[in-house]
Each structure stands twice: as structure tokens, then as C-alpha cells.
Amino acid sequence: MDKREVFAHVDHTLLKPTATWEEIKLICEEGLTYEMASVCIPPSFVKRAKEHFPALNVCTVIGFPLGYSTKEVKLFEASHALQEGAGEIDMVVNLGDVKEGNFGKITKEIAALKDAAGDRVLKVIIETCYLSEDEKIALCKCVTDGGADYIKTSTGFGTGGASMEDIQLLKQHIGAGVKIKASGGIRTAEDMLAYLEAGVSRIGASAAVKAFANKGEENQDKNSGY
Hints:
By secondary structure, the chain is an alpha/beta fold. It has helices at about 5, 20-35, 45-50, 70-85, 95-100, 105-115, 135-145, 165-175, 190-195, 210-225; strands spanning about 10-15, 40, 60, 90, 120-125, 150, 180-185, 200-205. Strands 1-2-3-4-5-6-7-8 form an eight-stranded parallel β-barrel, surrounded by six helices. It is globular and about 45 Å long.
């Protein structure tokens, strides 16, 4: 799999709280140049990004990063982002509901967000670093029954990110048609390739361009005998 094939699966991401418009513009330009799957940016930048880069697939985050906004607030956030030009939504589940076993409530929230998204992509962030194996399995059912397009491992703001063990577990328990997005701590070209080979359809990463630039430099060094 070459660089271009990998980039076609990458959500090029900038979600740090201090992000500026100049930084957002740069990743938007990179997203177009390298034909990334999308750029994933804060909701406050969606409208400007879409106006400046109309051909760009813009992804944004809802209930981010903690997930404990009410369903109604998440619905408003999502609807507003879609009106401003977002083509994809990454929502965070309510982890308090997870810990209390309120999986029916979680499924209804996911279904409501998917209804708002319509034919646009909805990814559900379950924040695996805080979950038991049984909770991860239960959330696979919630995401499937709620009609979401993807289950996503992490926000990148928790205590841990993607792991190969979690990817294998999610693969076993998601329903047909639900894809997996790995995110959080994926910084090297080797890691990206490994996750894609493991069956992941999307990767959330802020370092994809740098990772493959470094890989190219390493290959040049090897070829030059150093």
C-alpha cells in the first residue's frame, strides 16, 4: 500500500484547543493536496473551511471530547455543523450512561444523530481507554443498532488511544456495514499501515504528512548507505 492509498483512509486532524485559522487552513490545504478522506476540525471552523475549500470533505466533532452533553445539545451541534458544510460527524457517547449500563439510551442517541446526519457519515467515539471489555462489546451493539457508519476508538484526549487489541475486539462484535476508525496516538507510517491491514477503514491522525515524509527520509538514508 503506497502513501496515496493510505492517505485516502486518513481523517487529517487538528482538534487542539488553541488551533488558529492559519493552522486550520494549512491542514485543509494538505487534505486537498494529499487527497485525504477528510479533514477533522473544530465546529467553529467548519463554515470558513468549507467556504475557502468547497471541494474539501470536512469532518467535525460533536459532544467533544467528554461526551456528556445531552442528546438535544448534540443534535443541535450536529445539525448546525451539517448546515455549515460538514460532510461527516464524529460524536462522543455519554460515558456516564455506559458506566450505568444505559445502553438503550445510548442507542437512541446514536439513532437520533444518524437521523440528523442522513446520508452523511456518522462516526461514534466510544473512548476505549475508559471501558471494560464487556462495555466495548455492548457499545458495538449500540453503534450497530443505532445505524451509525463507524465505531471510533478514541478522542485523543483520554488516557489512551487506539490499540490493535481493541481493533480485533471491535471487528468481532460490530454488525455488518459498520466500519472502524482508529484514532489516538497513531503517529508513524508503520502504525498506519498496520491498522489498515488489520481491517480499519479510517485513521484519525494529525501526523500523517510528517510520518510519510520521515519514512521517505529513512528510505533515502538506507539507499545511500547510511
